[in-house]
Amino acid sequence: MSISIYQATNFQNTARFQFVSASITLSFVRFIPVSLLATAIIFATPGHTQEGPCLGENDLALINGNIHTLDKNNTVVASVLIRNGEFLDLAGTNYQNRFCTDIIDLGERTVIPGLIDNHVHFVRIQNRPGHDTREIETTFSTAEVLTTISSKSTSVPQGELITGIGGFITAQWAEARFPSITALDQAAPEHPVYLSAFGFGPGQTNTAGRDLINSLGGKVSPDGSIASREDTALAYEVLAASIDDEHRERQLADVIIWANKVGLTTAMDMSGTVPGVGFLDQRTGYNPIVNMARDGRLNLRTRLYFPALDEDAELSQLQGRLDNSFNNFGSDMLKTVGIGEWSVGRTLFNQQPLSEAAADAQRQIAERGWAYHQHLHSPEEFDAHLDIWESLDPEFDLSSLRWTAGHMSGVTPEIVQRIVALGLGIGAHGQPYLRPGGDAGGPPWRTIVESGAVALGGGSDGARISPFNPWSMIYYMVTGINAQNQLVNDGQQITRRQAVKLYSSAQQGWFTGEDEKLGGIATGRFADLVVLNKNVFNQQLVPDSEIRNMQSSLTIVDGRIVYTDGTLTIP
């Protein structure tokens, strides 16, 4: 049997790899774990043998497509050639005549660069109890919720917990309420179910979920409802108390399958330092994802921003982090790239004006040469941090260190120009999409896109207070309409192409110092792309309301097929 591109290109030049920790082996072989694909993708390629001229190292050509590179000229090409995890050539080559090349005919489908979330709490999802269900983010009625839970139950072992935690609000459903305990019983009769909305609830269970939580010391009402923030947090904590690293790795693997299905290929992870629900232990919390990367089981390119301080920690904790962590170190699939989303704990951060400790912390980050990504919402927060940054910039050139103002929902045009003048990146994130009440808009997408900033990136701040699904964020950018179907950001809408570009262009590589590698489609860049199931740029084919339901037909990460829906012929 011959070996196709999907298996052969996993044998990589070890020079492309550094390692996340000293304990990681200095060279390793990557393979595609069949369990992470929607269908089994280990195929034989007729006409070649591993002992023959190809030596098992086939290239991969995608031909006959509408491939949007999203470069400065918005170039569209018909074909790309991939070798060893990178784009080798774009158009102009007769791939049919190339020896040792596997060819996929796209049938004129729309292709975009892989989507990159500029600010997400991805690793923290490993601490979700049960089997997390991200599909719930794009349900818009209780009937859809029940269908989603029922579908999930077919892939979860009998008796195991099904959860849907964060990333949605009940107001997005037509009925503006949870399904009843009886309806959830019928949807998953052989599984306990626990659902928890935006932030810290409210929540709802089925009968088995109610009984499980109460038996562990939680407080669920007889009708399965959990009304208070405290009881919602308690339910999470008692359910999560017994999870181990095997569970965490499985949870990450499951969410990566979903992420690849919706076209996500890279996550810029902002950790999770708030104690209590979902807390990520900074000593051991990264072990599961490091193990997955070490074993070649990580199919979502991940860039780690370490939190500088926990809630009330002293400045010495930051010093310890900087003294004992490797900056910009790791593999192409998993790498440490910066400090974020805090330079000090929340107690210190919320002091106005910012404490002396905040200024000291940011100076230390600059002195050590780390990239820095800061959570910012209110004009007061922006002013306080920009005062510090403007004082540091002449000495450290913060643009060269890739410092970034993140979130941006409360920014003014004047503040945007202060950021632009410093040459800083702007990470614009759509978490106001889920805010209850309808009075929260932003970020001002159009102002940001037209600002002339050195780099722009889109992201979610998912997956508890915002959807992780990039298409919900793109929908919000394009329409200005939030999850409650309210127009809250009028006048700041941008085009579909601009929105997709925020999520996937080469500008995203600026934030991690990978300007020549990450984002976009061009020769020499990481071969991450998505063949869409529909042409999102055609409003007649995809009305605004359908943007949130976009999915991938084929997702490639690092030159490897990591998801297919089976509609394309794979050699």
Can you give a write-up of this model?
It is a single chain. With 571 residues, the chain is α/β, with parallel strands linked by helices. It has three domains: 5-113 and 528-564, Urease, subunit C, domain 1 (Roll), CATH 2.30.40; 130-240, Diaminopimelate Epimerase, Chain A, domain 1 (Roll); 263-511, TIM Barrel (Alpha-Beta Barrel). It is built from 16 helices and 24 strands. It has helices at residues 5-8, 142-153, 181-187, 207-215, 229-240, 245-261, 287-294, 315-324, 346-349, 356-367, 379-396, 413-422, 445-449, 470-479, 496-504, 508-511, and strands spanning 59-63, 66-68, 76-77, 80-83, 86-90, 101-105, 110-113, 115-120, 131-132, 162-165, 193-196, 203-205, 225-226, 264-269, 301-306, 329-330, 334-341, 371-376, 403-407, 425-429, 456-459, 529-532, 552-557, 560-564. The strands form four sheets. Strands 8, 14, 15, 16, 17, 18, 19, 20 and 21 form a nine-stranded mixed sheet that branches. Helix 8 runs parallel beside helix 10 and helix 10 crosses helix 11. The model is unreliable at 1-52 (pLDDT under 50).
